[in-house]
Specification:
Blueprint: H1 3-30, H2 34-40, H3 46-56, H4 62-74, E1 80-81, E2 86-87, H5 88-123, H6 128-142, H7 145-159, H8 172-177, H9 180-208, H10 212-219, H11 224-262, H12 267-276, H13 280-308
């Protein structure tokens, strides 16, 4: 992996982030009646709107407003939430670690289950167990997060009463002190990812099982168990690394639904509350942060891909 490739990918990622800020900036100005009317409400008087525009720089030319907007973003100022009566960056700082915990656990569970499952299916290709797990994967992949979450609540929270139906409320420390409250949200968010990752792992493992290095390992006396546990996982990891980066937007959008269903106090629930209360500064700040997180995730995935497979060369 050359530094030229790293610099080129970083430049491309930076361009995408700039594009996200442009889109968000345009959306702000496309609000009915402008930002002032959207934030102050339909009953705001003209003098209130003018005062708001002057105070927030909306009376400046559009290019000057964008420069001011970028300057504020670079200083960590994402705006002010009039619904929560608090700065957007402070709200995101409070809730981002909670969503990162939920998404991180979902990815961890997905990888721990999907890779062994995909390799197991590849070793028993077109046999009854392979068909069984394929059918289960299709069901898990096609089931909406909100519907799966409700089913899990009814099964484990209402009927069996073994798990709480709502996530712990409070800071990150309180959530970590009550791990049982994370089981159902993580299971809901991870199910579709497990199905997706296992299908790609199966396909990759099937391709690798007929390659020369596997035949050589078997010719040297390596057992099937050793081939599956030692030789295949690293080589099957490269497509999964790419999938992790590509699936990040879907997982984050799924976190919005999952957090709403389980009342999990993260960025997803905050986004839903902001949407229902028309808290536009918070919505725009959330969009920028998620855009940056998505671009960063794809950049890291590209760099890890080359580390996992040294044969890959970028020109």
């Amino acid at each position: 992996m050359s530094w030229a490739y790293v610099a080129r990918r970083f430049g491309q990622s930076l361009a995408v982030v700039v594009g996200v800020t442009v889109i968000v900036f345009i959306i702000i100005h496309l609000l009915p009646g402008g930002p002032a009317r959207a934030l102050l409400g339909p009953h705001a008087r003209p003098e209130q709107i003018n005062a708001f525009n002057v105070a927030n720089g909306y009376n400046l030319p559009v290019y000057a407003q964008y420069v001011r907007y970028i300057s504020q973003l670079l200083h960590g100022n994402l705006g002010y939430s009039y619904h929560y009566n608090e700065s957007v960056d402070a709200l995101l700082a409070q809730n981002l670690p909670k969503t990162a915990l939920l998404v991180g656990l979902a990815y961890f569970v997905s990888l721990c289950i999907a890779m062994p499952l995909g390799i197991f299916q590849a070793s028993r290709r077109n046999k009854p167990l392979d068909h069984l797990f394929t059918g289960i994967s299709f069901i898990g992949y096609s089931m909406p997060d909100f519907w799966l979450g409700i089913l899990l609540i009814l099964a484990f929270g209402v009927t069996l009463k073994v798990l709480p139906v709502s996530a712990p409320q409070g800071g990150l420390g309180i959530i970590l002190s009550q791990p049982t409250g994370l089981v159902l949200p993580v299971a809901t968010l991870a199910t579709g990812t497990i199905a997706w990752f296992s299908r790609y792992t199966r396909s990759s493992a099937i391709e690798h099982l007929i390659l020369d290095y596997v035949r050589t390992a078997r010719a040297k006396g390596a057992s099937q168990r050793r081939v599956l546990l030692r030789h295949l996982p690293r080589n099957c990891l490269t497509p999964i690394i790419t999938l992790v980066g590509l699936s990040l937007p879907a997982v984050l959008s799924g976190a919005v639904v999952t957090e709403t269903v389980f009342n999990y106090p993260g960025m997803g629930l905050m986004f839903w509350n902001a949407a229902t209360s028309q808290d536009y500064p918070l919505l725009m700040g959330f969009t920028v942060v998620i855009g940056i997180a998505t671009v960063t995730g794809n950049l890291v995935a590209d760099l890890l891909y080359t580390a996992a497979d040294p044969r890959v060369r970028y020109q």
